[in-house]
Write a structure and sequence with these properties.
With 623 residues, the chain is α/β, with parallel strands linked by helices. The chain has three domains: 2-246, no CATH class; 383-511, no CATH class; 518-614, NAD(P)-binding Rossmann-like Domain (Rossmann fold, 3-Layer(aba) Sandwich), CATH 3.40.50. It contains 20 helices and 13 strands. The chain has helices at 2-28, 50-67, 80-100, 104-120, 143-160, 167-185, 189-209, 218-236, 247-252, 254-270, 302-308, 313-336, 342-360, 384-408, 413-436, 449-473, 483-515, 528-539, 574-580, 595-608; strands spanning 32-33, 45-46, 127-129, 136-138, 244-245, 272-279, 282-289, 519-524, 545-551, 561-562, 565-569, 585-588, 611-614. A six-stranded mixed beta sheet has the order 10-11-9-8-12-13, sandwiched between helices. The chain has a three-stranded mixed beta sheet with strand order 4-3-5. A hairpin with a 2-residue loop joins strand 6 and strand 7. The radius of gyration is 33 Å and the shape is elongated.
């Protein structure tokens, strides 16, 4: 393995050396990407970035084959000369497009031709493993169109994301490293080696392609990388020639695939027109599609939207790297962890994609809010309740996992199987009861007694319902007895309750720290009204007050604490209190203070240059 890692660095060095030379060639041939209204860069930038990647990649692979003859036994590397022919055709297609700007249909024809060659050369998708039940399906004649479709899709998908400096190349590097990790884990050494070398070739090029770019990939680079990643992802998603799982390559290449789907949907929705026409009972509404073209270029891709939202090129690229990296991690997890709940995994990806679309604020999706189409975008996905629900889901999973570990003495195979089988029931039952007990209707900003009771009630009922359901479906003995559910109850109460208490504490701490910069005040009256004034000051940061304590006419209250604030004394102690602290104001909370005492207080404060104000409670009735 150390020798193959060395070839990774060899590919990096080749790419570092070749890229400036190809850049100079592109300048000499005048193959430049010129600025335009649709493009972001402001000056001409050389193209042909695919050539140094192609050369460094294939030179390092061939060098590896010479040094390690055992690689020739790999199903892919044994036919490398055939794959090289396809690479040259794709690279040539991209070169001509960079130079002469071909029509989209011309590129599609050549891509389909290369797809046919790939099938004839023995590559392709011949079997599919259903990720939901693990059963294999032989594709037969459908193998050819599915393989061609996959190659054309990924080849063009990577071309679509090539809109910011370093975006397509960095995305390709992440995907190549993901394929390497998956193949190394599944002992598919040949594809692991090829993916690692491809990553090295991209990394060397990325030094010149990251913002501000000195050279662009161009179609020669984006089409080549898309083609290579499409081939490697389907060949390396599982060991050797075994059937591929649908999920793994889709997740690994999730970002360019989602960008492609989003672009197609956006362009379709943009072409939809709502038409109102007269009818017998008023007006009727219908839809028409006019001017739809999935290939019409625009300046509204995800990376463009991030720039419009105020992100710099560098930050936008890093954000999209993060999204691509997250999907790549999920792809590896789907292979590395057996019996993973695929439905939950794909559901999380779909929800994240949905949230991402909403946050980008595409105007095209406004039509989904009409009565003619399903109003899916009316649902408030990003809000406080969603966050609380997501956190509770995580805590339910974590609590159940800890309970299994404690009861079974570890997360062995028996515990793992039972955990996977029972977790959908556990999540569903607890979340429904949490909702019914109002855990997502409370603000949790003040944490009153009613909120505490609803929390405890929800926890008790969810645990009891789980005991009943689990006893009926699995039997209590499968969980090690009732102790499992007792542990789960206490752990979940601690986690979920602790989250809500911590929110209250952090909220209070923030407001208290904010108030440290305010004017020092003393509250006159340490009763119910004084308590309300203190809470209002602490919760409403617009007042900018720092309560030092209370004064009260009852001498027995002196020295006591009310809501963490000391009762400093009575009116007679004001001289001592005001001399010790720089008191700015005295706030009168009580209505029981007489006019004589108010006069004495205002006279005292006038001499000390202290402001006096009164806090009133009133219900105003409008006529």
């Amino acid at each position: 393995m150390s020798g193959r890692i060395l070839l990774f660095f060899v590919a990096v060095v080749f790419s570092l050396l070749l890229t400036p030379l190809i850049r100079a060639l592109a300048v000499w041939l005048n193959i430049l990407d010129l600025p335009s209204e649709r493009k972001i860069h402001k000056k001409p930038v050389p193209l042909l970035g695919g050539i140094p990647i192609f050369l460094s990649f294939n030179l390092a692979v061939i060098l590896g084959l010479i040094l390690d003859q055992s690689l020739l036994s790999d199903p892919v590397l044994s036919k490398w000369h055939r794959l090289l022919i396809c690479q040259i055709i794709i690279l040539g297609l991209g070169f001509v497009d960079d130079w002469l700007h071909l029509q989209p249909w011309t590129k599609f024809v050549f891509q389909i031709f290369v797809g046919v060659l790939i099938v004839l050369f023995g590559f392709g998708i011949h079997n599919i493993t259903n990720p939901f039940n693990g059963l294999g399906l032989h594709l037969g004649l459908f193998s050819v169109p599915i393989t061609i479709f996959w190659l054309v899709l990924i080849t063009n998908a990577l071309n679509l994301v090539d809109g910011l400096d370093g975006l397509a190349a960095g995305t390709s590097f992440i995907v190549a490293m993901t394929v390497f990790a998956i193949c190394y884990f599944t002992q598919s050494q040949g594809i692991a080696f090829v993916s690692l070398v491809l990553a090295g070739s991209i990394l060397g090029f990325l030094k010149y392609n990251f913002y501000p770019a000195k050279i662009f990939l161009g179609d020669s680079g984006s089409l080549l990388l898309g083609f290579l990643l499409a081939v490697l992802s389907i060949q390396g998603s599982t060991k050797g020639a075994a059937a591929i799982a649908i999920l793994t390559p889709i997740l690994a290449l999730g970002f360019p695939i989602m960008e492609t789907l989003l672009s197609m949907i956006r362009r379709l929705l943009k072409s939809i027109r709502i038409i109102d026409y007269p009818a017998n009972n008023g007006t009727a509404t219908s839809l028409s599609i006019k001017g739809f073209s999935p290939f019409k270029a625009d300046k509204d891709h995800v990376h463009h939207r991030l720039l419009q939202l105020g992100f710099s090129q560098r930050k936008a690229v890093i954000i999209l790297y993060g999204a691509c990296g997250a999907l790549s991690v999920l792809a590896f997890i789907s292979v590395a962890i057996k019996n993973i709940n695929v439905i939950a995994l794909m559901g999380a990806v779909v929800i994240a994609f949905f949230i991402g679309i909403r946050s980008l604020k595409y105007q095209e999706f406004k039509i989904l809010e009409s009565g003619l189409l399903i109003p899916v975008f009316n649902f408030p996905i990003i809000n406080r309740r969603t966050f609380q629900g997501f956190f509770d889901l995580c805590m339910i999973l974590f609590s159940a996992y800890l309970s299994f570990v404690l009861v079974f003495g570890g997360f062995n195979s028996q515990a793992k199987v039972l955990f996977i089988q029972s977790i959908p029931i556990l999540l569903l039952s607890k979340m429904i009861i949490f909702y019914l007990f109002g855990l997502y209707r409370e603000t949790w900003a003040h944490f009153s007694l009613e909120e505490i009771l609803s929390l405890i009630g929800g926890m008790v009922c969810s645990s009891l319902s789980l005991v009943i359901i689990a006893a009926l479906i699995f039997g209590l003995d499968a969980f090690g007895g009732i102790i499992f559910f007792v542990l789960d109850f206490y752990l979940l109460l601690t986690l979920v309750g602790g989250f809500r208490v911590s929110y209250r504490i952090l909220n209070t701490y923030y407001k208290k720290s904010f108030a440290q910069k305010g004017k020092k005040v003393v509250i006159y009256g340490a009763g119910y009204r004084g308590s309300t004034v203190l809470k209002e000051i602490r919760n409403n940061t617009s007042y900018r007050f720092l309560p030092l304590g209370f004064i009260d006419d009852d001498p027995g209250k002196k020295g006591k604490i009310l809501h963490g604030c000391p009762i400093l004394g009575s009116f007679d102690d004001l001289e001592e209190i005001s001399s010790g602290d720089d008191v700015s104001e005295i706030i009168i909370s009580t209505a029981k203070i007489g006019k004589e005492k108010i006069n004495k207080l205002t006279e005292f404060c006038r001499k000390k240059q202290i402001n006096v104000r009164q806090f009133e409670f009133r219900f105003y009735e409008f006529p």
